[in-house]
Automatic annotation (TrEMBL):
Highest taxon, organism lineage: Bacteria
SMART domains on file: HTH_MERR (SM00422)
Signal sequence coordinates: none
Protein keywords: DNA-binding
Full protein name: MerR family transcriptional regulator
Limits of the HTH merR-type domain: 9-79
UniProt keyword annotation of Transcription regulation present: no
Organism of derivation: Chlorobium limicola
Sample GO molecular function, one term: DNA-binding transcription factor activity
Entry keyword Chloroplast: no
Amino acid sequence: MAFDSKKNYYSIGEVSRIAGVPAYLLRYWETFFNELNPSRDTRGNRRYTNRDIAMVLNIKELVYDKGYKLGKASELVKGEPRESDADPKTSEILKLQKEITRDRKKHSEIEERRHLLLREIRDEIEDILQMLG
């Protein structure tokens, strides 16, 4: 799932799709990892930030890829710096968001040029039709 560059918060379902883990597992991880603590909206639904997504991806890497048990993974997560600049996954997410924003801007510029060109063509055709008829 691509990251929406205009989005500040993600639902648990979106984070589940991004990370490739079930939503119930995200809720379960919150009990082991104090650092994974998404804020809640007025209805009590979880609101994950980019930092939370980076934490989920980090936990997934420790547990699934590196094979750590949750207790050891929790210790490792606690030992890591909390600065977003020091977290490579957060940096990766922010980089992807910048790329998406850049691509959208480029796409809108191309669309604008197409519309201008089509208007010019339409105007020329109308001029030709007026001359003919």
